[in-house]
Amino acid sequence: MKNTFSAKSLVKGTLILSMISTSLLAFGCTSTKPEATSSEPAAASSEIVEIGITQIVEHPSLDLIRNGIEAALKDQGFDSSSNLKIDYQNAQGSMENTQLIAQKFNDKKKKLVIAITTPSAQAAFQAVKEVPVIFSAVTDPKGAGLEAKGITGVSDMTPIKKQLELLKKLLPEAKTVGMVYNTGEQNSVVQVEMAKTIGKELGLEIISTGVSNTNDMPQAIDQVLSNSDVFYAHVDNSLATAFSLLAQKADAANIPIIGAVENYVTSGALATDGIDNYDIGYQTGLMAAKILKGESIDSLPIETVANTKLIISKKAATRFKITVPEALKENLVD
Fold first, then answer.
1. What is the pTM of this model?
2. What is the DSSP string of 151-169?
3. Could you give the 3-state DSSP secondary structure of residue 191?
4. Tens-place pLDDT, residues 178-188
5. Which of 62, 82, 133, 151 has the fewest Cβ atoms nearer than 10 Å?
6. Is-contact 287 300, C-beta < 8 A?
7. Torsions phi, psi of 183, nearest 5?
8. Do residues 204 and 161 make contact, with C-beta atoms less than 8 angstroms apart?
């Protein structure tokens, strides 16, 4: 049979194939991912991601923060039952343990590390070099040396002025305010100094005693209660761990407690006008989800929780024979 393809046809066909190949190569080198057209976050990946959560100690305040983190991640598509694996580590109040946990997370190259409280965040920032670090419940990020690249988070700076003003409204005759704090917690030291400055403006004398560990709390609490009209329980991990003891001793001494967070009130304090620990955690979890979806940690500034909640315990008000001002009665809780 006679071949019907001429040399000219062959050359023409070759040129067409070459043009098609060139077009395909050019298309393959161009991103097909559409540009973002809305502010809504991208969908979570079905790939299993592993993150580390390090917490200095277990107590209700910090546990609420962790619960909030996990809830926000789930709401954003990262569920521990499907595509998320959480390696939770508790340092049991040991600074050495915080460092060991942070080093472990770095060695295992977690996708992300979340550090709850200042000591855990400082340890993670020093040890974790390969992945982003998000902190939660750090009172003074700048003072803690945590304003830097590769780390961001949510501050739990307590609205101290609001809380001391509430103290004045409920206990107008009070002159001396007791505080006990852990001298090893930089965030706690900052709050005591702020309380002293604000207290002076409000005509309150702050009587404070520092301790180096939880074992010293009972004696310090007794000492402060014996010289105070009211106790101010700020955000301090050692104090939170010993809060049930504080509540017992304050009750026996007939000294009311103004708390920094809501769960202090549910555990025996008279009142608070503070931020909610669960909200702190939830806001932290939203930041974590953004990073897991591809955002750069350095594009996310440090955040604070703006909203506060004022609550007054009916039981404590009755116990201490406190007349709650009419304007505050709507904030009474059982």
1. 0.79
2. EEEEE----HHHHHHHHHH
3. helix
4. 999 999 998 99
5. 82
6. yes
7. -65, -15
8. no
